[in-house]
Design goal:
The structure is a single chain. This protein is mainly beta and about 1100 residues long. It has eleven helices and 70 strands. The strands form 19 sheets. It has a seven-stranded parallel beta sheet with strand order 12-13-9-15-16-17-18, with helices on both faces. Strand 15, helix 7 and strand 16 form a beta-alpha-beta unit.
Length: about 1100
């Protein structure tokens, strides 16, 4: 006879034995030993290796101190919280004020935190109604799901021939020898010491643990001795069976997960045949004593799913840490009951992240408001009047109860996960959870209300529907992780035939696949696919990485950068499919890019958007420069090989809105970084990432920050523009963050670019030039006074910052601006127009300056919105031969110039918005293997320098996806040039003609070699050496001590003809200061040698 036992309380509401609590023990605490403590140990469960802690233990009357989780390992951590550092402190007597005691422990230097120990209780006996049928299985559509298996011909739902699917029943006891459970009990054959193929034995009709396997040894190495079918954590015993029939909760839960189905007795279950791992976690009927230890134990023993039909309403840090360790270190799914309080509220562990929280529905798909509802609930499942297994002591006793509670909704979901896992044994937790949640069914009460609370969004994704979760089309997606050529530098070298390894990932949440066929193709005429097919016959589980290999050949004309290819992938779903289930083959097309050329080692830095001009600067002054760049609200610093500069990245409170500038503000020999933010902060940072100062004002800082000694104090000042909806301001502050006289200065028109600085008329006063989108250019002096004739108006807005140089050889400086109407205009210092050029599109990006054709005249190099790159001589008002050049897309950047190959001629470097970087000769011809193709968006000007000190240039390119460093690989020239944004790291926009190639052709070339005397001599900190070259050739200048030992090489390179100089700062080749004394410097070329003496005095 089957008997349903129900206890009715409060208005007929029936609830099960749900475990809940918010009380705390008053005779124990949990403490966390701080991560700074090393070699912590305990002696006799009373004394520790820390004297301060021992004193407190004695003062507080501590009876014992023990590990909270004895089986936790050192690597079990989450957010720097290590589970093996938690300890339980037990007092001899209850504390009147346990909170005060907790505070005492919390203040110890060796203790990171102290927690109360929660009392997790069990409520009264179930109070449920009779039901004469198992409505729950039909309500979750399990009856239709079962028809997918031809079980009449031997197919068994839940059975996988290669891997048992195991559900951990972390609860109060498990009567594993129940006749409706015994066949589904997990049998840990790793502990089969006697080798008879079983860990249970049937003796005189009764099941028991196999005595031949109980040997006191951890045979399977999982940390637990003789855990044949699970474990009793409360009594440290291998048998999880309840000590008395009243400890029934775990047996009830187990029946909901996987009561043996289709066996002519008892009940059916959604798990049908999946295995049950018993884990007793209580030593009494009212409290859970080892709940979280049980979770860890079940995971360590290999449970695929763990059910938790207990909880409390308080969040506990250590519990949250353990849950995250289970998620990160063990691929198992945690399912927990949402609670029976009939209220809006979180219930833990169900409400922790990475736990599937389940609330309860009743017959007819209704929600009767006795179960909890909350945003943390993920799913609903039948939990009212559920018939399940119970313990018994004799065969004439009842073996089943009818019960109610989320305690029994949760294991129904756990069993469904296990059934799904038996079909997809290589699917990860994310994939299985997505299928269960996505397959859930809508029911009307999801938009109902309880206690006046709208339930929308509080009952999870819907009600469990295991049939839909099984039959829905699997989601499959492969991602490319890396494309690597098997070559010296990991890239395709033009003209080579190489193997290509493509690293892929079957992303987390994607279905497992097998029998993969890959086909690699490309439309690039310079690439030939030699072997473009690859077969992978094994299984690729969810979340797993793998490699597909191909062979390609390139010709000498292939462009550097990334060559577009296509990868077609065909595969089948890897699953243990029953007869009634089938899935279509999967096809996917992926666009990928072959790396060609010579990237710098350690680059690109991927998955980061560069949001301003990168800067190339030696902050440390050790001749090993670094790259700095901004991304949103962070500043990054990188050495060669992509290594972080010490102290970087820096995280700021708001977004960086200017390019980075660099200069030695305090004249201490070290550079500082300077930049502005959206929130109006002007930041100055030291080389080690520490803050030099922050200057605040209310408006967004825009454009670039300029560094210039405005008041001729010997220190650099800082100039920047701020902008709000109605007003622009010019700010000038000194190196300590104080305003200079006359500033800030209101600008009565809208400014969107930074300022430029120079002494335009050579009167000894610095001029500050301010461009405006409101068709004006303004000039003020170092105290904010307007220059006569300014502001000057135009008929078009000014799109660029102002670039400055002596363009007519009269020693006064001219200003170049780009207008939106397509004109490039050069102004004399007084505002009169020197020259003007009309182009076919708005001038954009910025104007660079050089004499690239070495004809003694300045050229302006700039882009226009009609995708043209212009090289124009304003003095002659003409293009040089071969220019302008048309590109396939516009460029928003300033062109750069440098002698990339040491041929004494500058090259032009220009990058379009679609990420193509061109190197062009003086005649406008694109260099071989260019453009460099990045396939990313480039909006900001690159930078050029020798990052690794190997004597060739690297080009730093910032895109919307990465920071790239292209290694040019040829000896670099030493010409002064516009090789970074605004012509230099001070961002003044000034081009010094006296340092350029023009200086050589505009002055008399010396007729003979000459080594001049150093000045000053004797000297203290530094001295300058002059020398004359009648022609361009290789030069070496070195310093020797009085014993003839080489101290320092100052120059070892090709130099242009002219009168030149070099300084020595009193340091040796290793950057160390040399002592006072007599030194010699020699000057040698292929045609000349000379030596002179100097004296260093300190």
């Amino acid at each position: 006879m089957r008997r349903f036992i129900l206890i009715t309380i409060f208005l007929g509401l029936t609830i099960c034995e749900e475990i809940f609590a918010d009380d705390f023990y008053d005779d124990m605490l949990k403490i966390y030993i701080d991560n700074s403590v090393v070699d912590f140990s305990i002696v006799d469960n009373l004394k520790t290796s820390i004297s301060q802690l021992n004193d407190t233990l004695k003062q507080q009357g501590v009876a014992s101190i023990k590990k909270w989780l004895p089986k936790a390992e050192a690597h079990h951590s989450h957010n720097e919280i290590y589970l093996d550092r938690y300890y339980v402190v037990k007092f001899f007597e209850s504390k009147v004020n346990i909170k005060k005691t907790k505070d005492i422990f919390s203040k110890l230097n060796c203790v990171r935190s102290a927690e109360f120990m929660p009392i997790i209780k069990i409520s009264d006996r179930p109070n449920d109604q009779y039901w004469d049928q198992l409505y729950g299985l039909r309500q979750i559509d399990a009856d239709n799901a079962f028809t997918l298996w031809d079980f009449q011909n031997g197919e068994i739902p839940g059975f996988n021939p290669d891997k048992e699917i195991v559900v951990g029943i972390v609860d109060i006891g498990l009567m594993w020898n129940h006749p409706d459970l015994i066949d589904n009990v997990w049998r840990n054959l790793g502990e089969d010491a006697d080798g008879d193929g079983d860990v249970l034995e049937l003796v005189d009709g009764d099941w028991s643990l196999d005595s031949g396997d109980i040997n006191g040894i951890d045979d399977d190495g999982d940390g637990y001795i003789d855990n044949l079918i699970g474990y009793d954590l409360a009594y440290d015993d291998p048998n999880p069976s309840p000590n008395n029939p009243s400890m029934e909760h775990g047996t009830m839960v187990a029946g909901c997960v996987s009561a043996v189905t289709n066996n002519d007795i008892g009940i059916s279950s959604v798990g049908w045949s999946v295995k049950l791992m018993g884990m007793n976690i209580a030593n009494n009927l009212s409290t859970i004593t080892h709940g979280y230890e049980g979770i860890l134990a079940a995971a360590q023993m290999g449970a695929d799913i763990i059910n938790l039909s207990w909880g409390m309403t308080s969040w506990v840090e250590s519990h949250d840490a353990l849950i995250n360790v289970i998620n990160n270190d063990f691929d198992c799914i945690l399912v927990a009951a949402a609670g029976n309080n009939g209220e809006y509220g979180a219930f833990y562990p169900a409400a922790y992240d990475n736990v599937v929280s389940v609330t309860a529905t009743s017959s007819g798909n209704s929600f009767n408001c006795w179960a909890n509802y909350h945003e943390t609930v993920n799913l609903s499942a039948p939990g009212e009047s559920i018939l399940t297994t119970i313990p018994f002591t004799s065969s004439d006793e009842e073996m089943y109860y009818g019960v109610t509670g989320t305690s029994f909704s949760s294991p129904m979901v756990a069993g469904a996960f296990a059934l799904l896992k038996s079909v997809f044994p290589f699917g990860d937790s994310e994939m299985l959870i997505s299928r269960v949640l996505d397959g859930s069914s809508y029911f009307d009460d999801m938009v109902g209300s309880c206690n006046g609370e709208n339930l929308q969004g509080l009952l999870g994704e819907g009600q469990l529907n295991i049939n839909a979760s099984l039959v829905m089309d699997p989601f499959v997606e492969l991602d490319i992780l890396e494309v690597n050529a098997i070559s010296e530098n990991g890239m395709v070298i033009p003209g080579d035939t190489v193997s290509i390894d493509i690293s892929l990932k079957n992303i987390p949440g994607s279905a497992p696949i097998e029998d993969l066929l890959f086909e690699l193709t490309t439309d690039n005429p310079h690439i030939e696919i030699i072997n473009g097919e690859y077969n992978h016959t094994g299984i690729i589980p969810s979340g797993q990485n793998f490699i597909a290999s191909f062979i390609i050949s390139s010709n000498e004309e292939v462009s550097y950068g990334e060559i577009e290819c296509n990868l077609e992938i065909n595969s089948v779903i890897s699953a243990n499919l029953p007869t009634g289930l089938d899935f279509d083959a999967h096809s996917q097309h992926i666009e990928l890019f072959l790396p060609v050329g010579y990237n710098q080692d350690g680059y690109p830095i991927e998955n980061i958007s560069v949001d301003g001009e990168p800067i190339f600067v030696d902050l440390y002054g050790n001749s090993t420069p670094q790259i700095f760049f901004n991304s949103d609200s962070s500043i990054y610093g990188k050495w060669m090989s992509g290594i972080d500069v010490f102290g970087f990245p820096i995280q700021l409170p708001d977004r960086v809105t200017t390019s980075l500038s660099a200069g030695d503000l305090d004249a201490d020999g070290d550079m500082e970084l300077v930049f502005g933010t959206e929130g109006g902060r002007l930041h100055v940072y030291n080389k080690d990432g520490s803050e030099y100062f922050v200057f605040t004002q209310p408006d967004t800082i825009i454009g670039h920050v300029t560094l210039h000694d405005v008041n001729l104090s010997g220190y650099l000042d800082i100039l920047f523009i701020s902008l709000n909806d109605s007003l622009s301001k010019l700010h000038v502050i000194d190196h300590s963050g104080q305003y200079l006289n006359g500033f800030p200065l209101d600008i009565n028109f809208m400014v969107q670019e930074g300022v430029s600085t120079a002494d335009l008329d050579q009167d000894g006063v610095v001029d500050i030039i301010i461009p405006s989108i409101e068709e004006k250019i303004h000039i003020v002096d170092g105290v904010g006074n307007s220059r006569p004739g300014f502001p000057l108006s135009f008929s078009s807005s000014i799109n660029t910052a102002v670039s400055i140089a002596d363009m007519d050889f009269d020693e006064d400086l001219e200003m170049a601006i780009g207008l939106n109407d397509g004109r490039a205009v050069v102004l004399h210092h007084d505002g009169l127009v020197m020259s003007s050029l009309s182009t076919g599109g708005a001038i954009i990006g910025g104007i660079s300056i050089a004499d690239i054709n070495q004809n003694s005249k300045i050229e302006l190099i700039f882009n226009s919105s009609d995708s043209m790159l212009h090289v124009w001589e304003p003095y002659s008002d003409m293009y040089i031969d071969g220019w302008p050049i048309h590109f396939s897309d516009i460029a928003l950047t300033e062109p750069l110039l440098a002698d990339l190959n040491n041929d004494l001629i500058l090259e032009v470097i220009n990058t379009t918005i679609n990420g193509d970087m061109y190197i062009l000769g003086v005649d406008g011809v694109v260099f071989d293997n260019f453009p460099y193709i990045s396939n990313d968006t480039t909006k900001f000007t690159s930078a050029i320098g020798d990052l690794d000190g190997d004597g060739d240039y690297e080009i730093i390119i910032g895109t919307n996806n990465n920071l790239r460093v292209l290694d040019i690989g040829e000896d670099m020239g030493q010409q002064y040039s516009w090789d970074t944004y605004r012509g230099g790291n001070h961002r003044t926009g000034y081009f010094d003609v006296s340092l350029s190639y023009l200086n050589m052709v505009n002055k008399l070339i010396p007729k003979s070699f000459k080594l001049g005397y150093n000045y000053p001599n004797p000297f203290n900190s530094s001295t300058k050496i002059t020398y004359s070259l009648p022609k361009s050739l290789h030069v070496n200048i070195s310093i020797y001590d009085i014993l003839g030992r080489e101290i320092r090489t100052l120059i070892n390179r090709t130099e242009l003809a002219g009168i030149r100089s070099v300084s020595w700062d009193g340091l040796d080749n290793f950057g160390q200061k040399v002592p006072s004394g007599i030194y010699f410097y020699d000057f040698s070329t292929d045609d000349y040698f000379n030596v002179k003496k100097m004296v260093l005095v300190k």
